[in-house]
Every structure is written in C-alpha cells, then in structure tokens.
Design goal:
The complex is a heterodimer of chains A (166) and B (168).
Chain A lengths: L2 H22 L2 H35 L2 H5 L7 H14 L4 H13 L4 H14 L1 H11 L2 H11 L2 H12 L3
Chain B lengths: L1 H54 L2 H8 L4 H14 L4 H13 L4 H13 L2 H12 L1 H11 L2 H16 L7
Helix pairs in contact in B: 1-4, 3-5, 3-8, 4-5, 5-8, 6-7
The chains are: A mainly alpha (166), B mainly alpha (168).
Chain lengths: 166, 168
C-alpha cells in the first residue's frame, strides 16, 4: 500500500469521524457544515486549478541549476541567506522543492545550506503563499505568519552547523 | 489571481517558444492529472474544516488556543499540526477554522508551521524518497523546536502591533 493511499485513508477517516460528531449534534448541524464545506470547495477549485495547472509552466521556465549553484559547502552564512531566498523563490510542488534540494546535496551543497533551503521553501515558498494559503486563509494572517517565519531557516542552519548533522 | 494568471500565461508562452506546442501540452496533461488527483482531497479538506468549525466548542478553543493560552496553547497547536492528515488542502481550511472559532495568531502559526515542518504527510510521501532517510530525520529533529518558537514570536509581535486586539 502506498504512502499516498494511507494518507488519503487517514484523511477521509478523519472527515468521517468529525462528520459523525457533527451528525450526533443533530442533522441540522451536519447539513449546515456540509453546505459550508461544499461552498468553500466550489469557491476554491478555480484558484487551485490555476495554481496546479499553471505551476508546471512557471517551474519549467526557472532554470534549476541557477538555484543549486548558489549553495556550495563553503558558502557559509551568505550561502544560508542565498538558500533562504532561493527557497522562497522556488515555484511548484513538493517534487520540485525536494528535487532541487537533492540535486544541491549531490552537487556538493553544504548540509546547513540545504537544510535552510528546504525549511525556507516549506515555510514561505512565495508561490505556495499566493496559490494555496491566501485562498484559504485571511491574507493578514498569511503575511504575518510568513514575516514571523523569516528567522527560522537561519536558526535551523545554525542548529545544523552546531550539531554537525546531517 | 490576475497577477498569477499573467505569470502563468507568460511562462506558458516562454515554454511554447522554447519547446514548441509539445512542451506546452506535455506540462498541461501532467498538471491536469495532478489536479484531478488533488480534487477529492481538496473536498475532504474543506469538509474537515467546516465540520471542525461547527463541532469544536468555541469557548474551549479560545481557552486552550487563545491569546492567553500560554506555552500550552502553542504546544497544543504544534501537536495538532504535526498529526493533521493531508496536504495544504487540509491544513489551511482547518487553520482558518481554528482562527474563526477563537484560536489566536500564535497558536495558529504554531499549527501551520508544525504542519509544514514536522507533519508526516509531506515527509513520507516526498521527502523520504527524494532526500533520503538520514537527511529527512535530521531535518525533522532540527525542526522540532521551530513551531513553538514561531508561535511565541508571532504572539510577541502581534501584541505589539495590535495592542488593542485585532482590527476588523
């Protein structure tokens, strides 16, 4: 059984579980939340369509070598800074982000720099903020969260340098 | 939306100039199948968010995840983000629901950051196969303190920017 299938099962099991709790509160509660959830879904589909179908093109025009070339093992804190910016600028889904990280490692990138890259990408990849987070959440919260997250790729790189891993 | 649409159109144009029409359709088919695969999960995420918003007792949420929930609230947010199943299509609707029922920015930040950095979904599905076990495990170990720190920093900044509470 693949990991994706397991995750789907857990996801739908959680939906069924909270749905059941809603139903126990009364069929009206279930009906209202079903309608709200469906409306959210209908509103969000066009934005996601644009994001998912469009991100392939954006990723295809940004050359990956440019991103990996900046993360050398002797690049120090400047490399960490570059990695953080590169992580924020990387378009596309998890395959692209992690693949660039893997290529950077293979091409001799320093582990703290690659850690900073992966964490910056996970925390505030610009395209994900715009395409995923803003449609679902209040914009004020999204920008606030991204701003607050800024120090953490550096902190993670510092921890990686201090413990000498991975 | 418009900015992104323009960006996508320009990028598609560049791909077309570089790789011809085949390059354009290849990416389109790949992304369309990705989109089809994601849709049911988006529906699951929206339903999960709506159910949670309806089912969670508001005053309990504001007590355990609200502005005065202290370190415990941040830890609960972080733990919740770490075990939450699914991708962005689950995490963001659920986080939005938490905000709506009384969680503060700090606890919600802890949850979202924990979901991105520690959540097992992305790590198992993508990071392990691509980056390898050692990198992934160490990356997660290093990330462990970050959600609570981010939530605490968020709270610290928030009360200084909005001393009188959120402007609505």
């Amino acid at each position: 059984m693949s990991a994706a299938l397991i995750i789907d099962l857990i996801l739908w099991a959680s939906v069924a579980a909270v749905g059941f709790i809603a139903f126990r509160r009364g069929p009206a509660v279930l009906k209202v939340s079903l309608r709200e959830g469906t409306m959210d879904f209908i509103n969000i589909v066009p934005r996601i369509a644009l994001g998912v179908i469009g991100s392939g093109y954006i990723a295809a025009v940004i050359p990956q070598q440019i991103i990996t070339g900046w993360l050398g093992p002797d690049s120090g804190w400047l490399g960490v800074l570059t990695a953080t910016i590169a992580g924020a600028a990387t378009p596309g889904g998890p395959v692209i982000g992690f693949s660039i990280g893997a290529v950077a490692m293979k091409a001799g990138g320093g582990p703290p720099q690659v850690i900073a890259y992966v964490i910056a990408w996970a925390l505030f990849a610009f395209q994900r903020l715009l395409l995923w987070e803003i449609p679902f959440m209040p914009a004020r919260f999204v920008w606030f969260r991204a701003a607050v997250s800024l120090p953490f790729p550096f902190l993670a790189a510092a921890i990686a340098m201090a413990i000498g891993k991975p | 939306m418009i900015v992104i649409a323009v960006l996508v159109a320009v990028s598609a144009g560049l791909v077309w100039r570089r790789d011809g029409i085949n390059g354009v359709t290849e990416i389109l088919t790949h992304d369309l199948s990705l989109f089809g695969g994601i849709l049911p999960r988006v529906l699951a995420g929206c339903l999960l968010g709506a159910f949670i918003a309806e089912v969670l007792p508001h005053e309990k949420v504001s007590r355990s995840l609200g502005p005065n929930s202290g370190l415990k609230g941040l830890l609960i947010g972080a733990a919740f983000g770490a075990i939450l199943p699914g991708g962005p299509f689950t995490a963001y609707p659920v986080a939005s629901a938490l905000l709506a029922v009384g969680a503060d920015f700090g606890a919600t930040i802890a949850m979202v950051v924990s979901w991105t950095l520690i959540g097992y979904g992305r790590a198992i599905a993508w990071e392990l196969p691509i980056m390898g076990t050692e990198f992934t495990l160490w990356r997660i170990v290093i990330s462990l303190p970050l959600p609570v720190l981010a939530g605490a920093l968020g709270r610290f900044v928030y009360v200084r920017i909005y001393p009188k509470g959120a402007p609505e």
